[in-house]
Amino acid sequence: MRAVQYHEHGDESVLTLEDVEQPTPAPDQALVRIEAASVNPIDTYIREGNVSPPSGLPHVGGSDLAGVVEAVGDEVTRFEPGDRVFATGLGLFSPGTYAEYTVAPESQLASLPEGVEFRDAAAGAMAFATAWRALVTRGDLELGDVALVHGASGGVGHAAVQVAKAAGAFVVGTAREGEAADLAREYGADAVVDYRSDDLADDLEAATNGRGVDVVFEPHADLHLAANLDVLARGGRIVVIGEENPIEIDAGVSMTAKQADADLRFMSLMASPDDQVPILERVGERLADGRFTIEIDEVFGLDELPAAHRELMSSGTLGKIVIDPSK
Ligand SMILES: NC(=O)c1ccc[n+]([C@@H]2O[C@H](COP(=O)([O-])OP(=O)(O)OC[C@H]3O[C@@H](n4cnc5c(N)ncnc54)[C@H](OP(=O)(O)O)[C@@H]3O)[C@@H](O)[C@H]2O)c1
Q: pLDDT value at position 258?
């Protein structure tokens, strides 16, 4: 079968399309024919060696998949050949999804409802599961809350806007004014602030009409923590899902009244495999009936993985980038 793997860590040029042996499922795994995958920043961190796959190199990357079960191990009870499935959180502790086939633990596979396109499921898996787990499970988002979604035009961001709206929140997004802000509005953001603002906290405060924010969805914590704290309503929660650099907090932060009850929380989907399937099943229902939709910016073939990684990590991508092994 064809798979994109790397023999050493590095930039996109280490991603090589090769003919490799089709994997055989272990007793608790299923062999899945991959109809679509998608690219996520974590795939690039693993490729660069910032996070290392315990099984060593060569390694096939890729976290998300949607496809059809081809074969199952002896202990698998929930699936049989022919079943439609989707999954996220693969490609670190198990082989990845930049391939025509992969093996995945039964415990990480969710049934994919009829009517959901494979491309949408692969694009939506990590995006919606991350948004759901961050805002609802970790952020305790409630009806009537104000949610702040940073990076609201990105892969997880535009999914988070939809999850927050579905939970009954007033949603403020951050995105570049123009196409990106329009996309955030299209997916439900009630207000959008340009993250390049000279006074982000002031603009965010104004966007909430001075009420403040109850839950912050934060993929860039090193950039916005001060602004988040400034704009937080009393008892607010900041859920950090990513940061590129060390996070600094000003001295004296615990002395101000509204920040006194602030919660700084962290969330990693990859580190929470037990939560993935229950959330994915609810995401699948909502993709099937149209309550959730996913924006696909571009579709690449397996031979175009280096370009897909480059595109993902550049500015201006709207929504998700999908990989189609048949392309
Ligand atoms: N903890 C978890 O389980 C988990 C799961 C999934 C993702 N993540 C993390 O979440 C982050 C985003 O992932 P993704 O898949 O959405 O990536 P993505 O599709 O590349 O989106 C990133 C978004 O952030 C925006 N952005 C860039 N600089 C910004 C700033 N200063 N303020 C606000 N927004 C800014 C980008 O806008 P422009 O296009 O204008 O640059 C883009 O819309 C990554 O760091 C990823 O590792 C964490």
A: 64
Query: Closest residue (by CA) to atom 46 of ligand 1?
Result: 41
Question: Which residue's C-alpha comes closest to atom 6 of ligand 1?
Answer: 130
**Nearest C-alpha to atom 18 of ligand 1 is from which residue?**
154
Q: What is the pLDDT of residues 94-134, one digit of tens each?
A: 999 999 999 999 999 999 999 999 999 999 999 999 999 99
CATH second-level architecture of 2-112+295-323?
A: Alpha-Beta Complex (3.90)
Binding pocket residue ranges, ligand 1, CB within 6 Å: 40-42, 126, 130, 150-151, 153-157, 174, 176, 180, 195, 219-220, 223, 241-242, 267-270, 312, 315-317
Domain coordinates in residue numbering, the chain: 2-112+295-323, 127-266
- pLDDT-flagged residues of the chain (< 70): 254-255, 257-258
What does the H/E/C string look like for the chain? CEEEEECCCCCHHHCEEEECCCCCCCCCEEEEEEEEEECCHHHHHHHHCCCCCCCCCCEECCCEEEEEEEEECCCCCCCCCCCEEEECCCCCCCCCCCECEEEEEHHHCEECCCCCCHHHHHHHHHHHHHHHHHHHHHCCCCCCCEEEECCCCCHHHHHHHHHHHHCCCEEEEECCCCHHHHHHHHCCCCEEECCCCCCHHHHHHHHCCCCCEEEEEECCHHHHHHHHHHHEEEEEEEEECCCCCCCCCCCCHHHCCCCCCCEEEECCCCCCHHHHHHHHHHHHHHHHHCCCCCCEEEEECHHHHHHHHHHHCCCCCCCEEEECCCC
Best probe residue, ligand 1, of 158, 192, 220, 243 (max atoms within 8 Å of C-beta): 220
Cα(107) to centroid of ligand 1, in Å?
Answer: 27
Q: Whose CA is nearest to atom 35 of ligand 1?
A: 151
